[in-house]
Amino acid sequence: MEPVSVINGAAWDQQTFKVLYDEYFVLVSRYCYSFTGDYEAARDIAAELFANLWRQRAGIRVNTSMKNYLLVAARRSCKKHTDKLQRTFTISDDHLDQALSTHTPDAALAGKESREKLHQLLSLLDPVKKEIIDLKLLGLTNKEIAHILHITPKKVEYQLNTAIRLLQEEIKTRRLTVHDCEAGLIIGTLVLMLPA
Amino acid sequence: MNEKILFRYIYELSNAAEREMVTAWLQQSERNRDILVALVKRKQQLEGAADQQAADTHWERVQAAMNEEVPAVKNIRPWWLYSAAAALVTVSMGIGWLWQHQHTPAAQPVKLSTTGKNKQVITLPDGTRVWLQYNSSLEYDARAFNNSNRQVILNGAAFFNVNGSPDKPFRVSTHQTTVTVLGTSFSIHAREHEMQEIAVASGKINVQAAQLNINLLPMQRIKYDPVTHALLSDSTSLDRITAVRDNLLVFENDDLPSIARKLSQWYNRDVIIHGTPHRVSFTGSVQDNGIQPVLEGLSFLAGVEYKITADTIILSLKRNHKK
């Protein structure tokens, strides 16, 4: 486990808070996106989170790590946010694609099939596995993920390994079009060349 | 496929054996490649949510929230308490005035210090601005400072922009040296048991130490060893001098141990070097946007691999660079 150091929010001044913000805003936004699927909303939630953190700093005492504290807080506000969203309207996949393409022109350029594949593939998994994969992709260690989700690091490892196995098996049953293969091959080789 | 190996591959942290395993796995089947592509795409998608630029634009909003805040009054006291307090203050000020005119003024020491987590920009009573680097402290006597004696004591590193005042010289004392100026800007790196570094951005300064009395002009820099009194003077570039003010971290022909020492000073964490430090020499500057981005930049520029834990940073040379 991480060493316990008590961080006292009441002692923050604008300078220390800016340092904190600079260190974690990007990570928190990315994590929020994992829930919202909307870049703008994710950044909004993250900014609001930090603003609230400042407003309530007098009562804040962090006795885990700052990273853990922030991500748990982000998770909570995202859940609240998506609950509210679902009550008013549901986001269709179409909508999501639109949001994606308007914010990242690059993503729009990437073939629609690869985006579809991505959606289909990872959406085959249950929400817990999906969340763990997202956290892992954000660069967190198994320990850190375990801490956030209140499970053991072993369980995180197990879930990830199972996820990979399930994906391998699931796709076995999927019919692959020639198109799929081509795109996969091209991107696959590109990725292969990356570390060289 | 083991998740550890796969994700290490995605993060480009694999060693040769691991890379081979992943390559073999990818060649096994089309679907394995699909999984990797899906994961990498998802990673990019997540990372698209925000970058440093987004952080900067959203900071304004957070800052607005910080500024709107009114200092909280915990409980409202009846009005007469305030007037009583005001009366008391007036009386004590009167007494204080009398006292001041009978005795020599007492010192009002002010000490401002930064930790490994924060930097500070200080405006002194005379309008002089001081950019205090990590783990540094600035001390002065507020009463004497206001009268005539503009003197501060520095331990650590700082950039000074001194407000001009011809009849009141500004003095910075460090452990071994004293810098006297009228109205200039300059930087000082003076930590205990270390080479001191003083450089001028504008104007003229005078540096005095045990066996030293030297005037420095813009772009000139001295390195002074307080123990051996060895002096090295050269000229340097303006952005190096103003690095502290401009929030830059500067490296100059630094090898791995030297980079490690600088990082541990800036961020107050133990820096551990793994493996044999090959000869690397790194010159350049990194915008100080927090420890993570700095190390990210360093790892890219200097070919250093890093790992951050709560109180230590582990540096090692990239495996790919080893022959």
Automatic annotation (TrEMBL), chain A:
* UniProt-listed GO biological process terms: DNA-templated transcription initiation
Q: What name goes with this protein?
A: Sigma-70, region 4
Q: Which domain of life is it from?
A: Bacteria
The record's keywords, sorted A to Z, are: Sigma factor, Transcription, Transcription regulation
Family the UniProt entry places it in: Belongs to the sigma-70 factor family. ECF subfamily.
The molecular function terms in GO held by this entry are: DNA binding; sigma factor activity
Give the classification, highest ranks: Bacteria, Pseudomonadati, Bacteroidota, Chitinophagia, Chitinophagales
Q: Which residues form the RNA polymerase sigma factor 70 region 4 type domain?
A: 115-164
Which InterPro entries does its entry note?
Answer: RNA_pol_sigma-70-like, RNA_pol_sigma-70_dom, RNA_pol_sigma70_r2, RNA_pol_sigma70_r4_t2, RNA_pol_sigma_r2, RNA_pol_sigma_r3/r4-like, WH-like_DNA-bd_sf
- Classification via SUPFAM superfamilies: Sigma2 domain of RNA polymerase sigma factors, Sigma3 and sigma4 domains of RNA polymerase sigma factors
Pfam families from the entry? Answer: Sigma70_r2 (PF04542), Sigma70_r4_2 (PF08281)
> Could you tell me which PANTHER family the record lists for this protein?
RNA POLYMERASE ECF-TYPE SIGMA FACTO, RNA POLYMERASE SIGMA-70 FACTOR ECF SUBFAMILY
Q: Where is the RNA polymerase sigma-70 region domain?
A: 20-87
From TrEMBL, chain B:
Q: Which InterPro entries match?
A: FecR (IPR006860), FecR_C (IPR032508), Ferrdict_sens_TM (IPR012373)
Residue ranges annotated for the Protein FecR C-terminal domain, each copy included? 249-315
> In this protein, which residues make up the domain named FecR protein?
112-205
**Listed name of the protein:** FecR family protein
PANTHER family reported for this sequence? PERIPLASMIC SIGNAL SENSOR AND SIGMA FACTOR ACTIVATOR FECR-RELATED, PROTEIN FECR
Q: Name one Pfam family in it.
A: FecR
Q: Which GO terms describe its molecular function?
A: sigma factor antagonist activity
